[in-house]
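Database export, one record per block. Field names are fixed; values are copied verbatim from the stored entry.
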Amino acid sequence: MTTRFLLGESDLPSHWYNVVADLPSPPPPPMGPDGKPVTLDALAAIFPPALIEQEVSAERWIPIPEEVRGILRLWRPTPLHRAHRLEQALKTPAKIYYKNESVSPAGSHKPNTSIPQAWYNKAAGIRRLTTETGAGQWGCSLALAGQLLGLEVRVYMVKVSYEQKPYRRSLMKTWGAEVYASPTRMTNAGRQILDAHPDTPGSLGIAISEAVEEAAGRADTNYALGSVLNHVMHHQTVIGLEARRQMELAGDYPDMVLASCGGGSNFAGLAFPFFADKAAGRRVRLVAVEPSSCPTLTKGVYAYDYGDATGLTPLLKMHTLGHDFVPPGIHAGGLRYHGAAPLVSQLVHAGLVEATAIPQLETFEAGVLFARTEGIVPAPESSHAIAATIRAARECAQSGEPKTLLFNLSGHGHFDMSAYDRFLAGELQNYEYPTEAIREALSHLPKIA
């Protein structure tokens, strides 16, 4: 009874997959407030040329530089596991597989894009990178990339996560990054937010504003983003490309592919290569799983909105709850973003990808069950995908259908144990974000010509 399906280092993908090649229509372009498409020159203020080219590319395959592949080989290809013990605990005829991205040095899937982003910036002569981070997985991953490639890194970490997750802060600093609780008084955007809302817990949108403002104001500094943008989605597809080959090793193919979705890189990384199969006529359900407290795909609108809180970024066509939306301080900090990746949003809007929302307590129940059966304590973000997979497996137990389920274990929860402590002590609660508050945030969407 095989538990792990392994690929050799030589099996590491040589190219990233670009889902744009298989979309039913071209992606809507980024826009300025004047309603006109943003020029590539505008993006050059904070991104290197190669990443801008990837951002607008419609080519199906994008080559991975050999030096980037050499660094990725430190932990890739990652294992595919068959969750036999979880299946037994659920008494389900379903077969459950998971792609284990927790084996990276940073403990999550995020280095799949931090490494190439740092590499392209260094090649362009950039010396420093700024970024934001929610729960800290992305900040840790960019700090790692900066250390490996010789770049300085400054991280604006959402205040509530900065306080909740001190050891992710420590990991970033160990890899040489500077870390600040956002909002700060170091930027105009931060001061503006603090003057209006002194007790704000912060948000990814606010932290993005601070990081973008700093990058745009220094010639030696660029901005790096851990999710949302097209080039990030491309970089993460190494996950799904490997998983397709590993499912072949298992002699199986998923009926459902599930992954947590905040900005969208976790979901896109696993699901987009399987969308290529779907576009070619193969039947497979692709399910993006988000928190019910930050229901971007399930309760947001598909509209043009800013990627940050104060309007420094171009307008992106995406599912959004409004750029000034500030979610509750749930422990899945990586899923607390007001918007979703334009490519993921476009597929959801077209009905080609499904979305579902899970409450906080159910995700921790799923995380504990997974830890007690499979042995890995998952990150709260990853537990959303686990919870949705468990729902599907229990449906199979009732119907008798032996479906094959594949989910992305996007990271481990070793730095999230205070959250597990609170759950086990009965101190956590569900947050159902009020419809009225969502309506209020959406009323502030920008009006473009």
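Remark 1: The longest strand covers residues 152-158.
Remark 2: The mean pLDDT is 93.
End of record.
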